[in-house]
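pasting for the record
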Amino acid sequence: MPVFFQWIKTYLTFAVVFFTISFSTIVLATQDGVLTEAETLIRKGDFNAAYQLLEPLEEARAGDIDYDYLLGVAAVESNNVTRGVFALERVLALDPSHKDARAEMAKAHFMLGETDASKAEFNNVLQQNPGAETKKTVEKLLTAIQKIEGTTTTFGAFLEFGLGWDSNVSSAPGINTVAVPLFGGVLLDLGGSANERSDNIINFAGGVSFRHPFTEQFSVFGSASGNNKINGSETEFDTSSLDFNAGMQYKLEQNSFVLALQDNHFDLNGDAFRRAYGATAQWLHNFDARNQAGAYYQYAGLKYAGNSIRNADRQVLGFNAAHVFEGDRPPVVFASIYGGKEDARDNFADFLDQDIYGARLGGQLNVNNKVQLFTSLSYERRHNDENDPAFLARRKDDQYDASLGLNYSPARDWTIKPQLNYTKNDSNIALNSFERTIISINVRKDFNW
């Protein structure tokens, strides 16, 4: 009997050991299968799926170089950058010469806006004689950093096409008659173009730009762009515009000073309607990587074709600020306030002189590496200096604007932008009150050299 029990004990011990080894082998094989699947997903470019697959295993597998590297890549490329940095740091702690991990770490610093750390890591990668593909990628990102820092000449262009619907193409009041005090309050019928009209719209736009640095501090820039909005049936309200900008920028430590000249031509139904030309001076200060504030002054000369009584000079002084929250997909909020004055050039048109002041609040949120939500709210008040000769009252307008949309990037340099814009102008002169809603979707292709 003792021999029998000893045999049973030996058998059970062998069975337990065999089962334990077999179970561990199965678990290891399963985990390695997960890594294989994650690597396949990464090669396909489905970084978010790879991250979702690997992230739950971090507590158990952290410290495994192969796992940490794949997790780091998946996290960085799916915009979970901070999590990716932690994983890549574990890889480099065990293997400081891991070229691919160091290259991905450099990219992570770049995505976090840490350009100095990013450049240092990229240069470390180049010193390790990486493969041709890695070297090409690193050199492209170093060039991108130079573009961000403004230390290399850059050229850009874009083309855009859009479709939409406009509830009020003429920005007309939603009324059929208006009382005119100058004529004893008699009601005048608003017909034709004075009525609110809706229509489908097609939009075309394009532009070119350049920036050239003479030194790390001083650079010049310029751009030209055009836009053409075509209505489906209300063609008398088709609009087009052409914009030219040229200026210079000077950087001093955390400060940026910009002086730019502008010239805008706005046409209505193919005929010149208004020209606005002038200059803008702007100062921006970066308190740190997440906070920025500044001020600007803008002058514009306004000339109306065939309606010179409306010609005016406009001056605006404003202040703005922006804040980036913490996180892998940090929301950004910005706000501005401004005030100014528009003076009619015709001495007999002082009733068109007006005080202007307003405020704007907006923000954007990166949902993932392809989708960005944005929104903004603005308010502007305009008070005229003297009574309108026809309505015998000083015009007072309160305008509210709201926009909501998203930018979707299906591929590099491509953007699809659905957007909703709403405008409401309240005026004490009924003829100037209106509401307008525009729903649009635009597709844009950018070109960068």
